[in-house]
Amino acid sequence: MLSLALPKGSLEQGTLELFREADLEIMRTEREYNPRIADPRIGKVKILRPQEIPTYVQEGYFDLGISGLDWVLESGADVVEVADLPYSKAGMGKVRLVVAVHGSSPWQSARDIPDNARVSTEYPRLTTQFFERLGKRVHIVYSYGATEAKVPELVDVAVDLTETGATLIRNGLKIIDVVLESTTKLIANRASWSDPEKRREIEEIRTLLLGVIDARGRVMLKLNVPAERLDDVVSALPAMKRPTISQLYDDGYYAVETIVPKSEVNVLIPRLKALGAEDIVELKVYKVVH
């Protein structure tokens, strides 16, 4: 039975939705930080700040956790990366740790920043490593939040996490460099990963979560096609693999089922109809397990 640490804050809502769609619904109790999941593989669930989760997973307080790659690297935690889960607050999947300065600054890249510049960040480890790779000595000022608000009055540079860059722009900053790109990670304690029973449970949880991730942006199409138009219709389908085709009873028609990208449906459905498809039905896909 697994113990699981889930992230509070910007990743929280997306995590709750992912687990719900994976049929691992996180049920809140009167103890806000100690929900439960009605699944025999999961014994304990805790909601914590994502900054803390990699270290707690490394130290064995939890078998499994979800946190951003940024916090895994910032903490230096020695954990197993079980899966990449590309979801985030705005649904784009990736966030960036960026170097930002005031919009009026002449600096166009991090290489332009002079030695002894004051840099505010919640990521001192990653920021120090980044500037060391550039051969620069800067003064790191730890930020407890609202990092973008400190430039230029209190510090010269902000190193901050952003998904769209909108908050930085609203505060009069411009991005001049990228420290790293980060996605959400499913991580495991090394001893738990080495335990055959726990590893089996971890891999089963991973299968469910990745099935949901893979299904997002896809739909199922079901349609009927006259026998003489079947080849034309099938050739137009951008199927994951080959479509499922079955002959309908005694009427010269075939039923076709396939999974296609949601982004293509608005063009695809009229095309299929023009090629002879009938009774076209679009269905939501909840999981795709390879």
TrEMBL record:
Origin superkingdom: Archaea
Gene Ontology cellular component annotations, sorted alphabetically: cytoplasm
Gene3D superfamilies: 3.30.70.120, Periplasmic binding protein-like II (3.40.190.10)
Location of the Histidine biosynthesis HisG C-terminal domain: 215-285
Reaction equation(s) it catalyzes: 1-(5-phospho-beta-D-ribosyl)-ATP + diphosphate = 5-phospho-alpha-D-ribose 1-diphosphate + ATP
Coiled coil regions in record: none
Key words of the record: Amino-acid biosynthesis, ATP-binding, Cytoplasm, Glycosyltransferase, Histidine biosynthesis, Magnesium, Metal-binding, Nucleotide-binding, Transferase
Function per UniProt: Catalyzes the condensation of ATP and 5-phosphoribose 1-diphosphate to form N'-(5'-phosphoribosyl)-ATP (PR-ATP). Has a crucial role in the pathway because the rate of histidine biosynthesis seems to be controlled primarily by regulation of HisG enzymatic activity.
Stored NCBIfam families: hisG, HisG_C-term
Designated name of the protein: ATP phosphoribosyltransferase
Species annotation: Methermicoccus shengliensis
